[in-house]
Amino acid sequence: MFNQENKRLLLQGNEAIAYGALAAGCRFFAGYPITPATEISEMLATMLPQVGGTFVQMEDEIASMGAIIGASLAGEKTMTATSGPGFSLMQENLGYACIAEVPCVVVNVMRGGPSTGLPTCPSQGDVQMARWGTHGDHPIIVMAVSSVSDSFSITIKAFNLSEQYRVPVVLLSDEVVAHTRECVQLPDQKSIRVVDRIRPSVPPDWYKPYEGDNRGVPHMAAFGDGYRHHVTGLVHDEYGFPTQKPNEVQQFQNRLTKKITRGFSEIMMTKGFMLEDAEIAVIAYGSVARSALKAVEDARKQGVKVGLLQLITLFPFPRSHVSPLLEQCRAVLVPEMNMGQISREVQRVNQNKCVVAKHNRIDGQFITPNEIYAQLIKL
Amino acid sequence: MAVTAQKIRHEYLRHNKKFPHVWCPGCGNGIVMAALLRAIYRMEISKDDVVLASGIGCSGRMPTYLDFNTLHTTHGRALTFATGVKLAKPDLNVVAIMGDGDATAIGGNHFIHAARRNLNLTAIIINNSIYGMTGGQYSPTTPFGSTSTTSVYGHIEHDFSIAELAVTAGASFVARATVYHGELMDRLIEQAMRKRGFAVVEVISNCHVQYGRRNKLGGAVDMLTSFKENSITVSKAEKLSPEELEGKTTIGVLTDREMPISTEEYKKVRERASKTKGKI
Ligand SMILES: Cc1ncc(C[n+]2csc(CCOP(=O)(O)OP(=O)(O)O)c2C)c(N)n1
Ligand code: SF4
Ligand SMILES: [Mg+2]
Question: Which residues contact A32 (CB under 8 A, 6 or more apart)?
Answer without folding.
Answer: A41, A57, A58, A59, A60, A61, A63, A64, A82, A86
